[in-house]
User: Fold this.
Amino acid sequence: MQLFVGLFGLTAFGITWAFLPETSHYGTRGIDKLRQKEEQGQVRWRKYAVNPLSPLGLLKAPNIVAVVCERRRDFVVFLTPYASTDAFEFHSSGVGIR
Assistant:
């Protein structure tokens, strides 16, 4: 089983390396091209402040709000102890579980 997982991982790595060459070749990424332009004097770096609350703007979309609320409801359901819900259905006191 471990051999199969290892071979699968190596195969996945080989496919990624072959079909996504920008992950392995220097100078093909956008940041590399930008640094080359900076060295030539075509681009100047600017400092700017990052707003950490900007992702909250995604909550303007109603479909994203619906998904967030649904995921939160599922999380609350998982927090309910199974023994307490089981006791009501089968009329047991749950003494063996404690």
